Amino acid sequence: YVIAADNIKAHVQPTMYGVFFEDINMAGDGGVYAELVKNRSFEFKAPLMGWKELKQDGGDGSVLVLNRGVANPDNPRFIHVTSKTPKGYGLSNEGFRGMGVKKDDQYNFSVLAKLPWVAGISLQIELISAKGEVIGSATVSPSSKEWKKYTTNFNATETDPKASLRVLVNGKGSVDLDMISLFPKDTWKQREGGLRADLVQKLADMKPGFLRFPGGCIVEGRELDTRYQWKKTIGDVADRRMIINRWNTEFAHRPTPDYYQSFGLGFLEYFELAEDIGASPLPIINCGMACQFNTCELVPLDQLGPYVKDALDLIEFANGSVKTTWGKKRAQLGHPKPFNLKMMGVGNEQWGPQYIERYKIFEKAIHARYPQIKLVSSLGPNPDGEIFDDLNKSFRKLNADILDEHYYRAPQWFLQNVKRYDNYARKGPKIFAGEYAAQSVSAGSPDNKNNWQCAIAEAAFMTGLERNADVVSMASYAPLFAHVEGWQWTPDLIWFDNLKSYGTPNYYVQQLYSLNKGTDVVPLTLDNKAVTGQEGCFASAVLDSKGHQLIIKIVNTGKMEQKADLVVNGVKPGSKGTLTVLQSDDLNGVNSLDDPLNISPKKSKIEFMGNHVKLILKQYSFCVVRVSI
Ligand code: AHR
User: Fold this and answer.
1) CB contact at 8 A, 126 and 158
2) Using CA positions, which residue lies closest to atom 6 of ligand 1?
3) Which residues are catalytic, by number?
4) Rounded to whole angstroms, how far apart are CA atoms 168 and 164?
5) CATH architecture observed for domain 18-34+188-504
6) pLDDT digits (tens, 9 = 90+) for 509-541
7) A GO molecular function for this record (predicted)?
8) Which fold would CATH assign to domain 2-10+522-628?
9) How far does residue 215's CA lie from ligand 1's centre (Å)?
10) Which ligand 1 atom sits nearest the alpha carbon of residue 348?
C-alpha cells in the first residue's frame, strides 16, 4: 500500500460524519428526553393510558378527565381527582416500559394543580420499586384555586429499571391535576427537564460533524395534520401540543400504541444539543407533503405559503439577531446567541414531480432571502431505480446544493457499491448519504441484527465515501437510537433500556470514522490502483492538516489474514504512531447491554522502519493507523 501524503486530492468537509436523530424506536419520548412519566398531560388518544387508578388500604374516590377545549387548545385535558377517603386514593404511572431510577440520585417532581375550593389536601408522591416497595417519597400541597406549578424532589433509595410513580391524595376532597412530571436531576449538562446524560454522551463521544433532526418520516407525518411543526415545539412544555407519533404501531410483535410526541425535546433543545456536541445543525422541514408510505396527502401549490413561512422563520429563529421577531423569541427562550445554521433539508424521502414542484417554491423563497443557506433535497430510498435517476437528473438541472441518498441494503450491496461515487459528476450538487445501514436479513425486517458482518460492510463502504470527499460532503447511519422494549425498526446504532445503553459494532465504525475524519484526502494505492476490494480489502487515507497527522483506514472483509506493508511518502523515518483495530472472528458477533464492548476498538503503538510499517490485517478487521507527518 502506497500513501502519497504529500498529494492532496480533496478536502474533507468538517460536517463529513454526523448523526441523524429521529424520534423512532422511543428515541425521544421514553429515550433521550428524560421525562419518566408517560402521558403526563392526558393527551393520548385514551386519556388515561399509562395511568392506573389506585385504591389502597380502603381508599376510595373517582377520577374524571376534563377538557378545557378552546380555553387551552394546545393542552386541553386535565384530570379532576376526588378522594372520598382521608388517604389511599390516587393514581400510578407506569413510565415508559417502567421508570429507570438510580440509588441516591435526585428526582424532581412537578405538577400543575388547582383546587376547586381551598381544602386541606396534599399530594403524596411515591416512587415504587418493581417489588412494590416505596423507594422515594415527598409531599406537595396545592394551595390555590388557580392553576399553579408545584415542585418537590426526593432521592431514590434503590436502583431499579422498572420503577413506577404514585400520586396519592391525602385528605378528603378534589383537586385538578395536569403535567404530572418526574425527571432525574442528573440530566445532560444538568438542564432542568433535560436529556438523558448517558445517551447524549454516546453522541458527544462520536464528535459528529452535524446533527440532522427531527427525522425522517416524522417530519412528514402520516397525514399533514400530524406533520412536524417546529413552532409548536418551543416555549413552555405545557403548551407544546402532543401528537401521535408516526411510529405509533399496534403490530403484535412490537406494539407501541403508547408512542406519542410530547415535544419536550423540541427545536430549541435540538439546536442546543447540536451546539453542545459541536455538530452543525441540520433541521428538515415539511415540504407540503405527508409520508409517501401513508396518506401521501399534498398541499396545493397555491397554499404552500404557511409552510414556506415556517422555513423562513426557522432560519430567523436560528440565526436572526435579537432584534428580529424570531431571534427575539430565541433570546426569550434563553439563547440570545445565534445557532449559526448553514443548511436545511426540504422534505424527506419524497420523489416524483410533486416534490420537485414544491421544492422549487421553497428554494426560490429561501435563497431569495438567505442565499448562503445550503438546501438538502431528498432523493428517496431507491438508489438503483428509475425514480432515483430521474430525480437526480432534475435536481442537477436545478443546480441543487446537496442531494440526500438513502440506502437500507444487504451487506453485499455495500461492498459492491464502494466505488459508487468514483464516477459521479465532480461538479454540481454534493451528496449527503443521509440514511444508511446494512440489513442482515432484509430492509424492514424485525429480525435484522447489528452484527459484525453489517458493520464491516459499512466500514468498507465508507472508504468509498471518504475517497470521494469532494463529492460526498455528509454521511449518517440510520436510525440512531432504539429502546430494547420499544423499537419499530432494526438495525439501529445505539440501543438502550431505562438505565443502560450500548454502542453496536456499527457505532464503533461510525465513531472511528468521525474521530479520524481528517481534513484532506490523499491517494492510497495498491499496484497503482485505489484499494476497492483486492483480496477483500478496502482502504482510504486522509491528512489531518491541523494535527499534522496522516490517517490510514484499511478494512479486511475477507476470512484470510493479510500482510500489509504501508509505504508512506512524506513520513519521517522511524515515526511512531498508533493502530486502532475493530475486529471479530465472528461475522454474527454483536454487542449487547450485558456485553457492550464485545466488539470495540483496541489501540496499540506502532513504529515505522524508514517510511514503512508492516501490519497484519486480521480476518474481518477494520484498522486505523495514525502517524505524525
Ligand atoms: O430511518 C427510518 C426511516 O427510514 C426514516 O424515518 C425514513 O426517512 C426512512 O424511510
Assistant:
1) no
2) 216
3) 349
4) 13
5) Alpha-Beta Barrel (3.20)
6) 999 999 999 999 999 999 999 999 999 999 999
7) alpha-L-arabinofuranosidase activity
8) Immunoglobulin-like (2.60.40)
9) 7
10) 8
